[in-house]
Amino acid sequence: MNAPAELAQVVASAPDETLGYRSFTLGSFGFRRDEYFAHITWKTRDGRPLSHTMDVGNFLRALMRDVAWGFFYGGVNFDHVLGTVNKYESVDLYAGSCNGTMKEAGVDLLENFPTPQIRATFEQMLDDWTNDGFDPFAAPQETGTAYGRKNGNNTARITRARELAKRCVGLKDDLALRTDERGAPVNRAFADVPQDMPELHPEPGFEDQVHAFNLFAFLSRSQVTWNPSFTSVVKYSFMCPTTEEHILPIIHANDRVEWFFQMTDEIHWDCADKNTGKPLARVIMKAGDMAAMPAYCRHQGYSPKRSMLLVWENGSPTLVYEIQKGESPEVPVRF
Ligand code: PHB
Ligand code: FE
């Protein structure tokens, strides 16, 4: 989308003479990186200066998802302090606002930005701070380091097109299947996944309507982690499978119910109240388990081995407002 130039203006410093990185300003927030850390600064409502520090690898992995997913559904917490909330035409950026202790202490700050402005700032920060050889979408064992002084860029890896089927992967004029030739070899963890395709015998005239593909084979060839793609779309029902390894780099705060189907291996989830961070549940999901995350929770997953997870999203653009008005439930079922 082309944004009006004045909405997409980015405030950045010249590169630091020693480290080589730019610093960025967005409203009252400052962002600076050094060899190991991202430093976030802001002023409280009564003018006190505050700062927060994140490991720069974790910061870039979270920033990558926020940028690639267009600020996602609801809240994207980079950690227990910093995060964004998608308001769908604008985005809230906050420090401490979803942290019960910081809110109580009055040291939190939330500012709202037009989406093109925060998007442009985040995109430029991601590009300037991601060095050659570091891929924020890759599993930690499959990428180089995020640390050190500025060393080139990795623009190709941070601008991957999001894989979104219109109807279904593999249909004519839709998202293509993954193959060696298209640069998608089978991942080391999925060497045993059969690559055969289902047999299809549509009646003449129905060749574009009757369809099937091997979802396990498709996922075995994912080059990234914690990055759901759309493999089938029926109205607002989005099937978003993904391969997971290590830690979901964000703590996702739902604004709707979301379903998880653990298709292989296992993921351990920490679930908490989305407004305060107060722990609510640990959910240990093994192959074959299903769970629904209520709209009031936030969650972060830990995948000890590369695993396959199906995320099922309700993409209705009115759902979030129906939930706010109490017309739609925050939970999938009441017992
Ligand atoms: C989620 O927040 O629900 C989520 C995000 C990315 C994934 C899996 C789950 O890869
Ligand atoms: Fe989620």
Summarize this entry quickly:
The chain is an alpha+beta fold.
* Ligands, deduplicated: P-hydroxybenzoic acid, fe (iii) ion
Termini gap: 44 Å
Oligomer: single chain
- Mean pLDDT equals 96
Calculate Rg over CA atoms.
21 Å
By DSSP, the count of extended strands is 17
What is the helical fraction, as a range of percent?
Answer: 10-25%
What share of the residues does DSSP label as strand, in percent?
A: 25-35%
Question: What's the story with the biggest beta sheet?
Answer: 12 strands, antiparallel
User: Uncertain segments of ≥5 residues (pLDDT<50)?
Assistant: none
What spatial form do the alpha-carbon principal axes imply? Answer: globular
* Total DSSP helices: 6
Order of helices and strands: EEEEEHEEEHEHHHEEEEEEEEH
Describe this structure in words.
With 335 residues, the protein is of the alpha+beta class. 15% of the residues lie in helices and 31% in strands. The chain contains 6 helices and 17 strands. Strands 6, 7, 8, 9, 10, 11, 12, 13, 14, 15, 16 and 17 form a 12-stranded antiparallel sheet that branches. The longest helix has 15 residues. The chain is globular, with a radius of gyration of 21 Å. The mean pLDDT is 96. Bound molecules: P-hydroxybenzoic acid and fe (iii) ion (FE). The site of P-hydroxybenzoic acid has 10 residues, from strand 11 and strand 17.
